[in-house]
Write a structure and sequence with these properties.
Layout: H1 3-15, E1 23-28, H2 34-47, E2 55-57, H3 66-79, E3 84-89, H4 95-107, E4 112-116, H5 135-145, E5 149-154, H6 165-177, E6 182-187, H7 191-203, E7 210-214, H8 220-230, H9 236-242, H10 249-269, E8 274-278, H11 284-292
Parallel strand pairs: 1-2, 1-8, 2-3, 3-4, 4-5, 5-6, 6-7, 7-8
Helix pairs in contact: 1-10, 5-6, 10-11
Length: 321
């Protein structure tokens, strides 16, 4: 991180102590093969003692990982102490398909959905006539099916398809008005971009938790490509840190942990207490970052407290059985 930012972090550390460990959540993606499956479950088990608020599992473009996402979420709910949240997109799905999937999640004991508009898979695709066009529509529809907790996405540096930053913030408000109770942000690298967005959201009357999404960078070239698509700025200082390290994996990991830790500590110094980590199904960096933030593994609680009685489904009266 460049010198000016380091001075600012040092100033925060000397005048405003971090008072309590953070509340964290983790994102995983469903495995594509047996080797990746083993890595995922090793990661889940390694992070479980940190007792996150929840863990989320992504949903491929156009529902391309629908079955794998469901099975991963179901297994987390059944076999661990973790509370899973299932990502769900509306692109490419009709209301009946979405309702049936939500019912399967509810029956599996899952009570939290991360509702996203989503993207069509490579090669295109179309949404059925009874589909939902926007994430706000999906949030509202979820609430007609059952009383899920719903989280949505937010964009500190503005969604690349938004007409303006103001229009993007208005869209976030529509999702929250539809029933969402938390916003999780796209990853970013400059803490001030999140803090400015957070302040704008509060001035606009948004009072729900806005949780910063944190991505430890281990493959810089890949992050540069993805950031160009999602609208995340790559600071010059970050480019300089990774320059010449294409073949130095261990050094890249050290830098990734350092940058993400400084980023989180800067946000903690400004009063941010909740953090959502994009793990990329790896535990090592996350464990180190969380420990530096003051969060240590804890004894796992009795699983008996995690069982929840089923509640009756709230079916959309317009939907056929």
């Amino acid at each position: 991180m460049h010198e000016r930012q380091l001075r600012r972090l040092d100033a925060h550390g000397s005048t405003r102590a971090v008072e309590a460990p953070p509340r964290v959540s983790f994102e995983f993606f469903p495995p594509k093969n047996p080797q990746m499956e083993n890595q995922l479950w090793d990661t889940v088990k390694a992070l479980e003692p940190l007792l996150p608020q929840y863990v989320s599992v992504t949903y491929g473009a156009g529902g391309s990982t629908r079955d794998a996402t469901f099975e991963t979420v179901r297994r987390i709910a059944a076999k661990t102490h973790l509370r899973p949240a299932a990502h769900l997109t509306c692109v490419g799905h009709g209301r009946k398909d979405i309702a049936q999937l939500l019912e399967r999640y509810w029956e599996a004991g899952v009570r939290h959905i991360v509702a996203l508009r989503g993207d069509h898979p490579a090669g295109g695709g179309s949404t059925p006539p009874d589909g939902l066009a926007y994430a706000a529509d999906l949030v509202a529809f979820i609430k007609t099916v059952a009383d899920f907790e719903v989280s949505v996405a937010a964009y500190p540096e503005t969604h690349p398809q938004a007409q303006s930053a103001e229009a993007d913030l208005d869209n976030l408000k529509r999702k929250l008005d539809a029933g969402a109770t938390r916003a999780i942000t796209q990853y970013f690298f400059d803490p001030t971009s999140f803090l400015r967005f957070h302040e704008r959201a509060r001035r606009a009357g948004i009072s729900v938790p806005i949780v910063p999404g944190i991505l430890p960078v281990t493959n810089f070239a890949q992050v540069v490509r993805f950031s160009a698509m999602c609208g995340t700025a790559i600071p010059d200082w970050l480019t300089e840190l990774f320059e010449g390290l294409d073949d130095e994996q261990d050094t890249r990991k050290l830098i990734a942990a350092m940058v993400a830790t400084e980023q989180c500590r800067a946000l903690q110094a400004e009063g941010i207490t909740d953090f959502h980590f994009y793990t990329l199904n790896r535990a090592d960096l996350i464990l180190g970052i969380c420990r530096r933030m003051g969060l240590k593994p804890a004894p796992l609680p009795d699983r008996d407290g995690f069982a929840e009685a089923p509640a009756p489904m709230q079916r959309d009266p317009e939907m056929p059985d």
